[in-house]
Structures are given as C-alpha cells and as structure tokens.
Write a structure and sequence with these properties.
Elements (H helix, E strand, L loop, with lengths): L10 E5 L6 H8 L5 E3 L2 E3 L14 E3 L2 H9 L3 E7 L3 E6 L1 H9 L2 E5 L2 H10 L4 E6 L3 H11 L4 H15 L7 E4 L3 H16 L2 H14 L3
Parallel strand pairs: 1-7, 1-8, 2-7, 3-4, 8-9
Antiparallel strand pairs: 3-6, 5-6
Helix pairs in contact: 1-7
Length: about 210
C-alpha cells in the first residue's frame, strides 16, 4: 500500500521592507529540502548582476506582462513604487504540485494579500528591521540609491510595517543567524502540522486495519 498522500503544496510567503534582509533569509529557507523558489516576472530593466530567469527575476516587457495578466497567468501582481510591475506566475504552483514540494514566494504586502485571498492556508512571514536607523544604513550601504530613492523607500517601509498584523509570523532581523533559524523553524513547524498531515495520518491508521 502506498502511504504517500498527494497534497496541495504548502505555500510560504516572505515579505518585508527593502533592505530588511528578506532575500538573505529566503536563501536560508531554500536550504531546506523540497522547497521550490518562484521566480517573479518584472517589467523593470535588468541590473548588471541580474541573470534572466535565474535567482530572483524573469524580465519581460510591459506588453508581455499585460498579456500574462489577460491570460490570468499570475497568482499575484502589483505595481511597485508606481513604476514597475512585478508578478508571481501560476506555473510555479503547478510545478510545486507536480514535484510534491512546497512553494516559497518573496512578495510585497499587496501581493501577499492577493495570495492569501486565493490560498487562505498560505503561511506568511513578515521581516522587520531593528530600527529606521539600521534600515537607512543598509540602504545607503548598497551605494545604488539616490537620496530621493532612500527617502521614498523609508516612507514605504513604514507603510509596509503597519501591515504586519495581517501576517502569521513576524521575524525581527537584528541578528541574521537567529533570524535565519527562526524562519526555518516556522517552515518545519508548518510541515508537522496536524491539519496539513491529516490525510496521510488517516492513511497510516487505515494500514493497521480495524
């Protein structure tokens, strides 16, 4: 008797302000087995170190993005900073389902609301920097943002952090090693949940007969 139950992928959402360290924590989550990373689509131009379709983004034209919206090809999509569109293709959910893996999304607050509306059981984590001063220091350390851009990102960070109550878990990233352990622990606990494992547990019980 095959005791491996088919199930919908667990979907994990990671959000947080720019420079909160969420991308680094996502890499810690990808160290866990059977975790599929969803590569987002964006209309912004690639930076020198960006690789098409690898790491974080697939770069598409505005026209192609709009065609994908018309085809309902996105789990979520949003315009960020009033400039560029970002979206998570549905195909990653299909791939996770086919593999029997879990799906990891790094998306903003708008996208998280959309995904939770479609997949209420999705588990959401919000990454918070220890202070405004630390966040500003991280933004400046990048050396790629103008003063206007830094001010805009700090203002947006405040707005985003006010949404933390809509998330299942909040991780304060004041110590990277501890924060990395915490996000991994959230995933491992979710994988042991009675609710998500109920079907498999019933199959095991049935194997005892009676």
């Amino acid at each position: 008797m095959n005791l491996t139950a088919q199930r919908e992928p667990r979907v994990f959402i990671v959000s947080g302000p720019s420079a909160s360290g969420k991308s680094t924590l996502v890499k810690r989550l990808l160290e866990l087995p059977k975790m599929l990373w969803s590569v987002s689509c964006t209309t912004r131009q690639p930076r020198p170190d960006d690789k098409q379709g690898i790491d974080w983004y697939t770069f598409v034209s505005q026209e192609e993005f709009e065609r994908m919206v018309e085809r309902d090809a996105f789990l979520e999509y949003a315009k960020v900073f009033g400039k560029y569109w970002y979206g998570t293709p549905r195909r990653w959910l299909d791939e996770a389902r086919n593999k029997g893996w879990d799906l990891l999304l790094e998306i903003d607050v708008q996208g998280a609301v959309q995904v939770k509306g479609k997949i209420p059981d999705a588990i959401s984590m919000f990454i918070i920097p220890p202070s405004k001063q630390e966040l500003e220091s991280r933004l400046r350390a990048r050396g790629t943002n103008s003063e206007e851009e830094i001010a805009r990102r700090l203002a947006r960070a405040r707005q985003e952090m006010e949404s933390y109550q809509g998330y299942d878990y909040v991780v304060v990233n004041d110590d990277l090693e501890r924060a990395g352990n915490e996000v991994q622990a959230i995933v491992m606990a979710a994988r042991c949940s009675r609710v998500v494992n109920d079907k498999r547990i019933r199959q095991i019980l049935d194997s005892f007969g009676g």
